[in-house]
Amino acid sequence: MFDHPKTTGRREFLQLVAGLSAMAVVPWTVGQTRQRLARRIPGTTEDIPVIGMGSWGTFDIGSNSDLRLERVSVLLNFFKHGGTFIDSSPMYGSSEENIGHCLNQIGADAAFSATKVWVLGQERGIQQMKQSASLWGVPRFDLMQIHNFLDWKTHLRTLQRWKEEGRVRYIGITTSHGRRADDMARVIVDEPDLDFIQITYNIADRDPERRLLPLAAEHGKAVIINRPFRRKQLINSVARSPLPAWAAEIGCENWPQFLLKFIVSHPAVTCAIPATSRVDHMIENMGACYGPLPDPAMRQKMIHHFEKI
Fold this sequence. Notes:
By secondary structure, this protein is an alpha/beta fold.
């Protein structure tokens, strides 16, 4: 059961959680009026929302009961506002354990579960992936990714077999911070069994526009975007500047939505995965999942404005 705060009676707390969970079972609209933005996974008939959730640094909280309760609220609001795609890794400390804890409390069947294998060796990789499934409490992952190319050829053979056997639905590979771009380009072209790639791309890190994003589109890879805010760096860089009035034309009410909509408006991008430990920031982020997306001219306008700040 939930770990509950000392200031709230157990019965009152469980009643509160039950009410929030009821709100979360219909996560596809906000106010029953707004259409959620989603992208098709290439080669399938399945869509995922353009804004997902990362967990680097935000769910690595050990077993602290108060922090776990806060993360339950974060995840409830993620689902309530249309989210499904949750990304983690064994590299992220206790994140997988805490995601599993939160999902168990919420009972959220809508989650698109994505994690990674991050270890040397075939057998150790298999054991790590089984452990991740146990921590999450899922019978199988929607997406299993090879984290930062670590022993990637070994793990790819395992994942190809697991996908054939139905033990994972999709398989992928990741990199971040602009590293391993040449390697990523090669696997996009040479490894047709990979369904997803995960890379860094944002309004300040636009190198993927030249090669990786076009290659992914050409070869039918879904693209997950990590570090959309360079952690907090991009948010901090614009925090003292007013949001331009014309941002309302693309439904942006704040800078996080501005930065996220720039990313997901690229036609090759499937989903961006900002991470947060705060409910208010989650609600801001999920606002980018609704309203119009910038066209090419607006994207250039956004770049020019950002570079002047």
